[in-house]
Structure formats: structure tokens, C-alpha cells
Design a protein that fits this description.
The chain is an alpha+beta fold. The protein has two helices and nine strands. It has one domain. An eight-stranded antiparallel beta barrel has the order 1-2-3-4-5-6-7-8. Strand 7 and strand 8 form a beta hairpin.
Length: 131
């Protein structure tokens, strides 16, 4: 019984590390060279699901949707670092990079084909919710 309980606990812990959910209402956006700071009317949610290899943004913000070309879920093509740590990065399809600085309460998204001052999204004052 003890062994079954221990295996169940380890299984749940492993699953926890495969998914991370982050909320934010504070944004800094670079769009076509214009730097925009704003507080979103609704919460923006970022979900990383390593089991499904997906990165998803749930947002009502028109600027974020435009920058993401309305493709709010993208495949993760490379993981750099461990999501259980405070700093890690993901490479997504469509030349998108996401850098997580959890101890500094921010996520920075950029694209490799566009300068970060022309295209970039920062989620600030984030709240990390692990599932």
C-alpha cells in the first residue's frame, strides 16, 4: 500500500511539471516600433503543456491577437531549461521565442525574424499557477 501511494504521489508530481499556467493583466507591447504599456481589462492566461508540446495564450486583447496572427496556440519546438525552475525558454513554431523570468514576474516573447523593438510582448506582474 505504501509503495502504491508513493508511486501515485510521484506520478502526480511528474504531471505537475508538465503543465504550467500563468496569469497577467500588466502588458508591455512593441508593435511596429511603438512601445505600449497597458493594463488589460481581462486576465491574460499563458499555458505551457509539455505533454502536448503546446504553448497557448488566452487573451481578449486585440493587439496580442494581431501580433500572434490569431494563432494563439503554437507548438513547442525546443525547450531550454526546466519549467520547474525560475528561468527557462521555449522556442515555438513560427520563429517565436518565449523567455520566462518567474522570479522577476515577467514573460518576454520575441520573434527571430523581427527586431524585438518592432515585435515583442511582455507579460508583467505574473501570477504562476501550477496544475
Amino acid at each position: 500500500m505504501l509503495i502504491v501511494s508513493l508511486l501515485f504521489t510521484l506520478s502526480i508530481s511528474a504531471q505537475d511539471r508538465n503543465k504550467l499556467v500563468i496569469n497577467s493583466t500588466s502588458l508591455e507591447i512593441n508593435q511596429r516600433g511603438e512601445h505600449i504599456k497597458k493594463t488589460a481589462e481581462t486576465v491574460n492566461t499563458v499555458t505551457i503543456d509539455l505533454a502536448a508540446q503546446t504553448f497557448t495564450i488566452n487573451s481578449d486583447d486585440k493587439t496580442i491577437k494581431e501580433l500572434m496572427r490569431n494563432k494563439m496556440t503554437r507548438k513547442i519546438t525546443k525547450q531550454m531549461g526546466d519549467i520547474s525552475k525560475s528561468q527557462f525558454s521555449l522556442e515555438l513554431e513560427d520563429k517565436t521565442f518565449v523567455h520566462f523570468f518567474l522570479e522577476k514576474d515577467k514573460i518576454i516573447m520575441t520573434r527571430s525574424d523581427i527586431h524585438p523593438l518592432k515585435w515583442g510582448i511582455q507579460f508583467r506582474d505574473i501570477e504562476v499557477i501550477e496544475e
